[in-house]
Each structure stands twice: as structure tokens, then as C-alpha cells.
Amino acid sequence: MQRIHLRSISWLALALFGFAAIYFLTTTGVINPFYRITLMTIMLNVIYAAGLNLILGVAGQFSLGHAGFIAIGAYSAAIFTKEMDNSTLGLFVGIAVGMVIAMIVALLVGVPTLRLKGDYLAIATLGVSEIIRVLINNLRDITNGPAGISGIPLVTTWELVYIFLIVIVMIIVCYTYSSSGRATLAINQNEIAAEAMGVRVTKYKVMAFVIGAMTAAVGGSLQATFIGIVTPSDYTFNRSIDVLIIVVFGGIGSYTGTFIAAILLGLLNLLLQDYGQLRMVIYAVALVLIMIFRPGGLLGTWEFKFGSIVNRLFGRKDKEAVL
User: Among 3-7, 58-62, 209-213, 252-256, which stretch is predicted with the lowest mean pLDDT?
Assistant: First the structure.
């Protein structure tokens, strides 16, 4: 019990330190409004990639439908923030509605499609994402069609995104190391053996898929009310690939790797902005080199664990792996 208490305090202290560091850099002007866009992009990408890493790295389901769930959250927040007098309240209502819609869609899609594996599942989830985008494109009375929705109140701040980031990552990590998460991981390692041991395979696959979809919707809502405009072209196949690259780059199954990859790729995009179209070539070459020399990603499946540090500081010799 004391060890758990120390871990909780350690993680809380790290989160507060991160918040204080960003606050200091923004108030002193080191992170100016231009760099703040990169900061927001990195934090939002961590939210997207953490959810996809749960689906891909823990559940072992190759999904290419993340863009569709991001779009659901984005349009939900855009509609409610514009229609409600209180834009901040509209954002939270939009997040809630987006999460519910994403959950329903994920359930409807997950139950039949998660029985598929590998490329077949990837194609199925990609098809669902495209269906969502086409529906958004054609529901002109609600979504304004291909023109999208502009003039969205800019109510999202970096502080709000940071809080959501910490909460979402905590939920995902806690699920991963819970009994349900362990069952999901067992399915990933050997589905036949897990099912033989009584693990309800479909249940845990769908559970991970739903959590990933809901977190994507939250990120989409925050992004829409930060940028101020959403269009169907923002949520194509390429958007799903962008998130997938972060997961693979950092290491499939490693949330620490997700953080590091999102930061490195965000900074790389910032540094290469002056090179125009050439930056995409340099960006692609960097990714190819990483995949050649680190095929498992930067960190593989390695996770940063406070438990080992706490054990060393307090002289504990427990062999049990802890968070």
C-alpha cells in the first residue's frame, strides 16, 4: 500500500513539474504563439497515439480508422461550441457527445470486424473511417458539407489540453496494467491460448477499441476548438497514417515511446518548415532510417517505470515490475 502511495505521488509530481515547466516557458516568452502551435500539436498527437497504441500495441489490432473517430469529436465540438451561448460549456458538451457517438460507432464496428486479423482488419477499419468522412461530406445541413465549419470559438488552451492529456494517459495506462488489460495483452500474445484459458476474446478486443476511439474523439474536439475550422479533408486516410507513424516510430506497445516519438516528430516538422516540399522527403528518409536501424521503434516495448526508481531510493528489492 505504501509503495502504491509513493508511485501515485511520484507520477503526480512529474505531471505537476511538466505543467510548471511549460507554464514558465510560455510566460517568459520562450514558447511564443508560433511555438505554442507546435506544443499543442505534440500534445494532441500524444492523445491520438496513446489510444491507437492501446488498440495496436496492447490488443494487437491493426486499425486504420482513427481519423474517423477524430472527425466525430471535432465536428461534435464544432457544432456545439457554435450553437451554444457559452462556448466553454459547448466544448464540454461536444466532447461528451463526441465520446458517446464514437463509443456507439466503435461498438457497432468492433463486434463484427474485430474477429478479423491483420490486413483484413486494417482494410475494414479504413473503410469505416471513409464511411464517416463521406457521411460528414454529405450531411450538409449539419456539417456544412465539403466546406466544413469555420468560425469555431477558440476556447481550447494548452492548459486544458495538458489536463486532458494527463487524464487520458492515466486511464489508458491504468487499463493496460489492470486485469482487463492483462487479458487483452494475453490475447495479443496468443489468442488461441488466451481463449483456451477462458479469456473472452471479443469482449476485450472491443473494450480496447472503444477506449481508443473515445480518446481520439476527445483529441478531435480539442483540436477543432483550437484551430477554429474543420473540413472533411482534414480526416482522410493520411490522418490515420500520421498517428500510426508516431506509434510505430516510438515502439508498438510503449507509451513512453509514444511521448518521445510525438515530441521528436513534432520538433522535426518545426525545424524542416523552411524547406518546403523537401521537408517531406527529409521527414520520410528519417523515418526509413529509424525503421532500418530500430525496426522495433525507438524504445521497442520498454516503459519508463517509477517503481524501479522508488525501490532504489527506498532500498526495496522487490522483483515485481511496477509502474
Answer: 3-7
Grid cell in block for residue 42:
505534440
As given in the structure block, the three cell numbers for residue 61 are 489490432
- Burial label, 314 (beta-carbon count in 10 A; 0-12, 13-18, 19+): exposed
The answer to the question of residue 73 being in a domain is yes
In a domain? residue 174: yes
Does residue 229 sit in helix, strand or coil?
A: strand
User: By residue range, what is the domain housing residue 160?
Assistant: 46-243
**How many domains does the structure of the chain reveal?**
1
CA 160 to chain CA centroid, nearest Å: 16
Q: Helix, strand, coil shares of the chain as percentages rounded to 5?
A: 75, 0, 20
- What does DSSP say about strands 149-150 and 229-230: parallel, antiparallel, or unpaired? antiparallel
Residue type, 23: Y
On whether residue 19 sits in a domain, the answer given is no
Q: What is the pLDDT of residues 113-148, one digit of tens each?
A: 777 776 788 888 899 999 999 999 998 889 988 999
Q: What is the pLDDT of residue 316?
A: 52
b/e burial code for range 280-298 (CB count within 10 A of at least 16 → b)? eeebeeeeeebeeeeeebb
pLDDT confidence of residue 307? 58
- Nearest-angstrom CA–CA distance, 281 and 114: 35
0.85 exceeded by the pTM?
yes
Contact 216, 73 (CB under 8 A): yes
CA atoms of 282 and 129, how far apart (whole Å): 29
**Could you give the 3-state DSSP secondary structure of residue 114?**
coil
Q: CA 3 → CA 201, 210, 249, 314, 317, distances in Å?
A: 32, 31, 32, 10, 12
Q: Is residue 256 part of a domain?
A: no
Banded model confidence at residue 7, pLDDT cuts 50, 70, 90: low
Is the separation of the CB atoms in 298 and 290 below 8 Å? yes
